[in-house]
Amino acid sequence: MLTLRALRPSDRDAFLAAVEAFRRSDPDWEFAFHFDPRADFDAYVSMLAAWRLGRQLPLPFVPNSYLVGVVGDRIVGRLSLRHELNDFLRQVGGHIGYGVVASERRKGYATRMLELALPMARRVGLSRVLVTCDDDNLGSVKTIEACHGVLDKVVPVEGEAPKRHYWITVPA
Ligand SMILES: CC(C)(COP(=O)(O)OP(=O)(O)OC[C@H]1O[C@@H](n2cnc3c(N)ncnc32)[C@H](O)[C@@H]1OP(=O)(O)O)[C@@H](O)C(=O)NCCC(=O)NCCS
């Protein structure tokens, strides 16, 4: 019942609702990158499509797929799949980052989004993905481990919680 797909122009209202929900519950967590709710939404969707192709990338972004988790007419979360790693992603961000709208948590959506992202990772040429999370983020730890993440190391991050580094082998 959850689908993971690229953002569409018709998602505008659902997307704005998810952005606003995140702003209220997790103001420091970036749900939408380089998003201005007052700017043209179709142009934003086009920009994300360009990023997927490695075009119009703001520094230091790498080519990435920005995907939304959709249930019925609601956007319940987002997942970004980075097609390659840079120094920051290798240390902190990993290949995949995700978040679920607070009112939609603990329904299995993060786990399902991560599962669905793995064949997509394969399609962009990845045979294994680095997924990181804060050492104390139990919901994320369980999400990654449910998707067969193998803990590689726990890395200290200045001024933040240590990051767990997991690798998930992408099914062929
Ligand atoms: C972490 C997050 C993505 C989990 O999303 P979710 O949709 O609630 O996760 P799921 O429902 O798939 O839950 C996965 C497992 O974690 C457990 N879980 C979820 N949130 C939890 C919490 N706060 N404390 C303890 N366990 C939790 C679930 O019960 C489930 O365990 P189970 O399979 O044993 O039942 C969500 O809390 C979130 O978006 N947080 C803010 C952003 C964030 O931290 N993103 C991750 C960055 S690495």
Textual characterization of the structure:
With 172 residues, this protein is α+β, with helices and mostly antiparallel strands. The chain has one domain (2-169): 3-Layer(aba) Sandwich (Aminopeptidase). Helix content is 33%, strand content 27%. The chain is built from five helices and seven strands. The protein is globular. The two termini are 24 Å apart. 33% of the residues are buried. It binds coenzyme A (COA). Coenzyme A binds at residues 26, 29, 97-100, 105-111, 133, 137-140, 142-143, 146.
CATH architecture: 3-Layer(aba) Sandwich
Mean pLDDT: 97
Strand order of the largest sheet: 1-2-3-4
SSE series: EHHEEHEHEHEE
Largest sheet, if any?
Answer: 4 strands, antiparallel
State the secondary-structure class.
alpha+beta
**Proportion of β residues?**
25-35%
What is the helix fraction of residues, given as a range?
25-40%
Q: Do you know the CATH topology?
A: Aminopeptidase
- Bound ligands, named by name, code or SMILES: coenzyme A
- Which parts are unreliable, with pLDDT below 50 for 5 consecutive residues or more? none
Shape: globular
Count the beta strands: 7
CA-based gyration radius? 15 Å
End-to-end Cα distance: 24 Å
CATH class: Alpha Beta
CATH superfamily, by name, is: Gcn5-related N-acetyltransferase (GNAT)
Total helices: the number is 5
Features:
alpha+beta; Aminopeptidase; 4-stranded antiparallel beta sheet; 3-stranded antiparallel beta sheet; 5 helices; 7 strands; binds coenzyme A
